[in-house]
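Hi support team,

I submitted a single chain yesterday and got back a structure, but I'm not sure I'm reading the token output correctly. Could someone confirm the output below corresponds to the sequence I sent? I've pasted both exactly as they appear in my results page.

Thanks,
R.
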Amino acid sequence: MQLNTEYTFRIALPSDTIQLVALGLEAYGQFEHTLTNDNWQTMQTNLKNENTYTALLQKANGYVCEHSGKLIGMAFLVPKGNPTTIFEAGWAYIRMVGVATGYEGQGIAKKLTSMCVDHAIQTNEKVIALHTSEIMTAARHIYEKLGFKQQKEVGPFFGKKYWLYTLVI
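Hi R., thanks for writing in. Yes, this is the structure output for that exact sequence:
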């Protein structure tokens, strides 16, 4: 798949925070009708919170895709040493891969995920993890094509099944 040459891929900056919020709401908004109202409200509250993105930018390498001055894609690679209830301390992990409505299926998410993997390789990470859900079919396809392997079910989150995936590099 040939990416549009008008797309610019770059490192996310703190000054992108407002656009990251808008992109998060737009990209994940596709799930509004597949979640219960309560679960959508919880997800939407997290997506609207600037601190969600500020905290990621402080500890992660963020990558964005831009078109005509608008952010249309994002992904974040959190380095090892930042464990959660899902991710082990020795793992890097990918968070918040999202693409704006109308730009799906053009290879943007794959390119951003690949940028995360490339950075992990350059910084000598050994394992990259991520989690994704039953409603994120396209995402699961991308991750599996890049070599991520489903390890186990985690969650549920937002009332949906989620799985942990890892890639040993």
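A quick pointer for reading it: The CA atoms of residues 6 and 67 lie 6 Å apart. Let us know if anything else looks off.

Best,
Support desk
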